[in-house]
Amino acid sequence: MIERIHDQSARQLITLTLYFSMALLLLPSRADATEGGIGYYVPGTMATLIDRAPVQTGWVVKPQYMHYSGDFSASADTPLAGLVVAGVDVEIDAFAPGLLYTFEEDVLGAKYTVGAFPSWVDVTVTGTIESDLGNFSRRDSVSGLGDTTLIPALMAWQEGCWQYNFMFAVHAPTGDYEVGRLANEGLNYWAVDPVVGIAYSNLEAGFNASVFSGVMFNAENSDTDYRSGRTFHLDASVQQMIKAGSGFVTLGLNGFWGQQFSPDRNPGRFVDEFKMRSSGIGPVVGYMLPMGKDNILVELSWLPQTDTRNTTEGDYVWLKFVYQWQ
Asked: What is the pTM of this model?
């Protein structure tokens, strides 16, 4: 009886969050954007088997590396670091050594996890700056401590082959930021991202499928008086596990869709219309090595953007590693 109540609570929490997200999509919108066309939502961050909430008490070390290379159309005007820039080209390398802990006591019938992902980034941005004195090209590069993702709540409910996830992430502006500099280690504003997920695993068939959906709420960049609009995002994957030695090789596809839906707040000196949209799909390959109470997972994924609007178009490459122990 108690387990049935817990399962109902999990489904109700997921359903309410989805309804809340859809209701936000129906709000009226006008000039919608993220400053610079890039925000805290990064496709592939939470998308596959390796990203599901832990269901085993203990520690998880999750170092992640992401490489991104993309560019805007040469004719696209972009608000960036207090400037209006055309033909932006972006190169980003980011390393985030995550650490999570799952408590033994359940919360609302779910395994409860907290964690944090600090980051180290290397960013290079090239573009043409528009000014009253004329246009000129510039290239800026920075390297250092980036922004930090705090996870005060990561919850997992299990029901047979199904797993229901809820995550509340807080993005803290710990990276350096300078107005007028094209490349910055941080975004210079806070954001929160409630995410719900549903995953299916058939161990006998080796089939896995995951869907994660969330809404990014952004605070204002106090240095540029620019507040990016809210973003709805959806990441999904299908993977097949194949026995290989003591572990399993995983092969599959992962994809994403992100759409900005709420109005920006800006001082009017930037471009007027700037609505971001992005989607993509690509392969993912991994290896899982179960060792009793200890588990090792590694995944490599490629996510080329196939449809973009008012954001850079390029490729995301992820390399993720998980070591779990009690």
From this structure: 0.84
